[in-house]
Amino acid sequence: MAGDISVGQAIAVVAVGSVSMLLIVGASFWAMEACHAGQLMRGWRWLRVRALGGVTTLRRPLSYNCAMCQYSLDAHEEVRTLSCNHVFHCRESDRCRDGIDRWLVQESMICIYRKTPFPVLPWKARPPPLSPAPSGSAEPPLTLPPLELEEPLPSSPGLSDPLLLQSSQ
Description:
Layout: H1 7-37, H2 39-50, E1 55-57, E2 78-81, E3 87-89, H3 99-106
Antiparallel strand pairs: 1-2, 2-3
Helix pairs in contact: 2-3
């Protein structure tokens, strides 16, 4: 009979199935423990911070200081500009030592200077200026009301500063 399997083959199938099941159960317990300890959430937040962008290298020193450590922003330093226009030392800086990235991971992507939650959004370059509308255009140009902030931002021009190079991420 061609459909019969030997005892050795049956033992091999049971052994492989048992080992596979043990691996799945062990991985499930590890995942539940890691989730309970918050390791998976912290890992996810680190990925989100790394993907934020806004990391630039300065050509020359800037006239304002890091919003976190209050030290100057010198030439050839990497800085992170958040969507709220606050500028911080970034990565392996001798001054902040990745401080803003650690803060964003711990505080769920909220800027250190915001009293109410204001999510940090991925950094994007400013859009190009609009071309003038044709003279025969029937639609008036779209104007938006000015943005009202709860608190004034420190004088850190961030994205509008021509001394910043393009993102390295």
